[in-house]
Amino acid sequence: MTDAIIEIADISKAFPGGVRAVDAVSLSIREGEFFALLGPSGCGKTTLLRMIAGFETPTEGAIRIDGVDMAGTAPNRRPVNMVFQSYAVFPHMSVAENVAYGLKMDGVAKPEMARRVEDALALVRLDGFDGRKPDQLSGGQRQRVALARALVKRPRVLLLDEPLSALDAKLREAMQLELVNLQKSVGITFVVVTHDQDEALSMADRIAVMETGQVRQLAPPAELYEHPNSRFVAEFIGKMNVIEATASDGVLTGPGLGVIARAPDLGDGPASVALRPEKIRLNMAPTPALGKDEAEIEGTVTTVSYHGAESHIYVDAGEGVLLSATVQNAERDAAHRVKRGDRARLCWRLADALVLKE
Amino acid sequence: MIAAYRRWKRLHPAGPLDYTRKWPMQLTLAATFIFLYAPILILILFSFNDSRRNIVWRGFTTKYYEKALGNESLIEAFVNSLTIAFVSTIVSTILGAMVAILLWRFRFPGKAGYEGGMALPIVIPEICLGVAMLAFFARIGWPTDLPWPLNLGNIIIAHISFSFPFAAVVIRARLAGFNRELEEAARDLGASEWETYRDVVLPYLKPGLVAGALLAFTLSLDDFVITFFTSGPDTVTFPVKVYSMVRFSVTPEVNAASTVLIVITLFLTAIAMRVQNRSAKRD
Ligand SMILES: Nc1ncnc2c1ncn2[C@@H]1O[C@H](COP(=O)(O)OP(=O)(O)OP(=O)(O)O)[C@@H](O)[C@H]1O
Ligand SMILES: [Mg+2]
Fold it and tell me: Which of A30, A116, A239, B93 qualifies as a FRET site for A149, CA 20 to 30 Å off?
């Protein structure tokens, strides 16, 4: 790819003691994109990011930034900057001194430095905070200082390690939007590490899902959500119902259920069928006319979990099949219509069911 | 009177956490204060006593302060002590900081052994250290007739060797709480390794450095045993001089000189605590 700004080729990191934190990862990050590294705790996201920044040396493989091999280049000489998980704002320096620090190290002249610091603080909406010390700031403000401090150096790539994990839910949502807007306005490539799939889906242009040191799938959010390539990705991103089914003659049947999905190219044998809860419709009465491309099963409502805008209805269809369906509470008091113990029918379009080979 | 107190107590019963209002606690506190501070207060008080024998109070005077100031050999001992303390504090703090950073930053073979060996002067009885120093300086033939301040050289070396481990331990403890990401952030922003130490690690270490320096200073200033063994026949430090004066009689002059020393120490401690409070608030 020609517009790749970071190219990671077959990189591995083995820590003393034998932990392979990153295992033969290859990916390329495009200029100007918002890239997310997503995965469960301990899957090697931070290690990968730290190798890009230069704080860890890869055991094998190469990292190229702007086409230049970074092997042997110290962190202070790389065209990337990092926002640390703890923000690492220097406690003994004022906000302005923190932001100016990187420029001072680059030998930028005083007047230009003052101007750029002011611009950077305005960018993260911290104008007027110049003289404050970090202990006089809130968590969110401290994070903006860390952002401004990294952005003021105009790096080619900004690396962010779990930038929002220390913030409370409300602030986190606001900052997600703000980060995306900031990224679009400065045009710098962002690489964000997160273990929050919701965060990755809403912010990133492309997401790499990692598990035990390896990249399982790299795709834009919608593709990741609608076309996961493995059971791991399917279950890690969003909610998913998985039914163990049997394939024969291009159709899949569930245990004690009828046809629940179609897969013309699939050979005969066991396979998993995955269904998103929001793609399942819940009918309390028998469906008047079931389309021929639809599936329907009947069961008993076991749990109704209320979430305000929507409710999650869990239905036991027998033979160990437990499905959850998401119902929008579009009308007031709609949620009370479904009760535990009711008989209910679940139906979905066969095309919405996903067949996972493994 | 007692009835009034009883009534007050009934109206304000002690809560379960009001430890200071329970008599065993109050007794302990009182005992601590009496045994710790009464001797010091009496020392200071009697430095103003207008009596040669210094046993009964005969009225207020400051003449023993004047006398102490006029006592040339006492002043000389005082200046010697301050010089030794000053130099050995600076060297001990720098050495202690370097050792602390070495132990914190690097892994090397024999590290555990080195860490233990370095702390040895803390646990070795002072008297043994004193004898060892005496034997050592005699063995290498350290000259005893050097002009001031070079004649303090061996005492300074001895003081550094027993006070730097204390400084190192204090600074090491401070370093243990250092957020490694601060160091990495500085590197990430373009600082070299040396600039990182100067701009990030050292400012963080400041309270530890101050505490270590204060410890080294007070250890050196009042050291008697090791100084007694290492000093030449003509070099006298303040504690040694006081000891020789007390052998004849405890005059108010000694009290006066000791009071001055206490004031200096308190003053330095107050400054150190101010510095520490200010940086402690930040992290
Ligand atoms: N310095 C180290 N020495 C030895 N093992 C390490 C070191 N750093 C990380 N590891 C191990 O490498 C693996 C990956 O760690 P890493 O920090 O990259 O995970 P992560 O994906 O960032 O997880 P989290 O979401 O919890 O931050 C873990 O098993 C961890 O224990
Ligand atoms: Mg991590």
Answer: A30
Cβ atoms of residues B219 and B126 within 8 Å? no
- Ligand 1: which residues within 6 Å by Cβ? A 15, 17, 19, 21, 39, 41-47, 195
**Other Cβ atoms closer than 10 A to A267:** 10
Q: Which two tokens stand for residue A42?
A: 């301990």
Digit-coded pLDDT (tens) for B11-54:
777 777 777 777 888 888 899 888 988 888 988 888 888 877 77
Q: How far is C-alpha A44 from the chain's CA centre?
A: 14
Test site for ligand 1: of A11, A12, A19, most ligand atoms within 8 A of the Cβ? A19
A319 pLDDT more than 90: no
Cβ contact (<8 Å) for B199 and A153?
Answer: no
With left for phi above 0 and alpha for psi between -120 and 50, is residue A88 left, alpha or beta? left
3-state secondary structure A37-54: EECCCCCCHHHHHHHHHC
The pLDDT-based confidence of A148 (bands split at 50, 70, 90) is very high
- Is the confidence metric ipTM above 0.85 for this complex? no
Cα dihedral B103/B106/B110/B111 (nearest 10): 20
Report residue B259: phi and psi, to 5°. Answer: -60, -40
